[in-house]
Each structure stands twice: as structure tokens, then as C-alpha cells.
Specification:
The complex is a heterodimer of chains A (150) and B (112).
Chain A lengths: L1 E2 L3 E7 L2 H17 L4 H22 L7 E8 L3 E7 L26 H8 L2 E7 L2 E9 L10 E2 L1
Parallel strand pairs in A: 5-7
Antiparallel strand pairs in A: 1-2, 2-3, 3-4, 4-6, 5-6
Helix pairs in contact in A: 1-2, 2-3
Chain B lengths: L1 E7 L2 E10 L3 H15 L4 E12 L1 H16 L3 E5 L3 H9 L8 E2 L2 H6 L3
Helix pairs in contact in B: 1-2
């Protein structure tokens, strides 16, 4: 774990324990920063979903691959970054889980939930891994008031 | 996650509590529903009154339980959603898919 005054980062194994740990860290930090109970739940769930994607779909549980999780507090925002060392995702292949043909699928809702709960979600895939950056405004709009996503 | 089942007028009510998330919670729910169906229990109510957290994997398990039951000519309904679970089903539009009930007696009677 590395800490600066406004930034905390963790390097985690590609395990299910990392998913729970990431969620717990997000809950703790969001609570400390004074987010409301609903916002804390949204942030912790978004981080959990990001960690699931990094561990399962990115690193595919590979023991030699790590997940990096960081939280940065700026005056206006909580900025959360989750990175994996996988092959990178194809953004064009992310289905819309609200489409009628996808409604009864048992997976594919993680990124949708992140975008629903956070104000900004940016996904940067590369052949050496995927970096997912999420922003929650400290006094910003509630869930659904997103500025942009890609 | 903890699960227990009981029978009321030919309907199986599955009382769930805790978290339905990737890993143990999802697997427990999946095994329970499949076991019920294999024993011929095809009228199922998932009582989610004490489920305080569910992630996308848990949502996927609810969908899986619903479709698996339907494919075996059964019916699966949801009972007493917490606000968090209700909100998630609204966001994901699954509220329109599931038959959601608030009252246990009415839920039991709603089966054909």
C-alpha cells in the first residue's frame, strides 16, 4: 500500500478476496470523506464491480497478475482507479444490459452499474491491461447525474 | 448468506438473508433452487426481506433462478425486496421481468 496525503493505492492479488477487500476499502474511504449512506453504497458497489472485472475478466485469476486500486481525493472529486494486467477489453463488445435481448442474461451488468452509480466512468483498455477510472463528485449530482462516460 | 426453505400451501418459500454476491452467496442460491426443482418443487418464492446487499453476480443468479424455473414449467416470484435490491431491479429493468410481491399470503395465493 502506498499513501500520500490525498492518494491511497493498493496492489492486490487476483483473487475473490481482493473483490471483498476493494469493496471494504471503498466503503471506509467514502464514509470518511462524508458521502451520504446512499452514495457510499453506490461507490462501494461500483468499486466491487470494477474489482470483479479486473480479477475475473482482466487477470482471469492469474497468480502472477496484480490489480491496482487507488483512491484520490481532490477538492471536488473522489477519483478511483482500478487497473488489471489482462489482455484488455473490447469496448465495442460491451452489451447493453437493458436491451430486450439481453434482459435475461445472467451477466454483463457490471459496467452498466458503475456508470449508473458514478458521475464519470472512463475505460482505457490496452494490450497490457485495462484501466478503469471512476469519479464521484464530492457534492455532485446523485446517481444518474452523469457527465460523461465512454 | 443463509438460506432456509419452508412449504406453505404447496408453495416453497425460500427465506434468504445476508448478501447475494459473487462466490458463496450466488452458489448457495443456485444450488438451493436447482435442488428444489429436482425434487419437483416448481412453485417458488424467494423471500429477500433480509437480503441487504446484492451485486451484479447476485442479480445474475436471480435471473438464472427465474429462467431455470420457467424452463422447467415452474414459477419463481420475489417477495419483500429491500430498498437497495428494489432500486437495483429498477435500474436494471428487471423489475418488469420478475413478479414481485410485498405480502407473503398474497404471494402464495397468486400461484395458479
Amino acid at each position: 500500500m502506498g499513501i500520500t496525503e490525498q492518494r491511497v493505492s493498493y496492489t492486490l492479488d487476483s483473487t475473490l478476496q481482493t473483490v471483498d477487500s476493494a469493496e471494504e476499502k471503498a466503503t471506509s474511504i467514502a464514509t470518511e470523506l462524508g458521502f451520504s449512506e446512499d452514495e457510499v453504497m453506490q461507490i462501494s458497489m461500483a468499486v466491487r464491480e470494477a474489482a470483479v472485472n479486473a480479477v475475473l475478466h482482466g487477470n482471469a485469476y492469474a497468480p502472477d497478475k496484480k490489480v491496482t486500486l487507488s483512491f484520490e481525493r481532490t477538492p471536488e472529486n473522489l477519483v478511483i482507479t482500478v487497473s488489471d494486467q489482462g489482455a484488455g477489453i473490447d469496448l465495442a463488445c460491451i452489451p447493453n444490459p437493458l436491451a430486450p435481448e439481453n434482459l435475461l442474461k445472467t451477466s454483463g451488468r457490471g459496467i452498466f452499474l458503475m456508470r449508473s452509480f458514478m458521475d464519470v466512468v472512463e475505460i482505457r483498455p490496452s494490450h497490457t491491461g485495462t484501466e478503469l477510472k471512476m469519479i464521484k463528485h464530492v457534492h455532485g449530482p446523485s446517481a444518474g447525474g452523469k457527465e460523461a462516460s465512454q | 448468506m443463509k438460506i432456509s426453505s419452508r412449504q406453505v400451501d404447496g408453495v416453497t418459500i425460500v427465506d434468504c438473508s445476508g448478501r447475494i454476491t459473487l462466490g458463496e452467496g450466488s452458489v448457495t442460491l443456485r444450488d438451493t433452487v436447482r435442488d428444489l426443482l429436482s425434487k419437483g418443487n416448481k412453485k417458488i418464492i424467494l423471500n429477500l426481506a433480509d437480503v441487504n446487499y446484492i451485486d451484479s453476480s447476485g442479480i445474475g443468479e436471480l435471473v438464472s433462478a427465474f429462467t431455470t424455473t420457467k424452463n422447467q414449467n415452474g414459477e419463481l416470484k420475489l417477495l419483500k425486496l429491500t430498498k437497495k435490491v428494489n432500486d437495483l431491479l429498477q435500474i436494471t429493468k428487471l423489475y418488469t421481468v420478475f413478479d414481485v410481491k410485498d405480502d407473503e399470503t398474497a404471494a402464495v395465493k397468486s400461484f395458479k
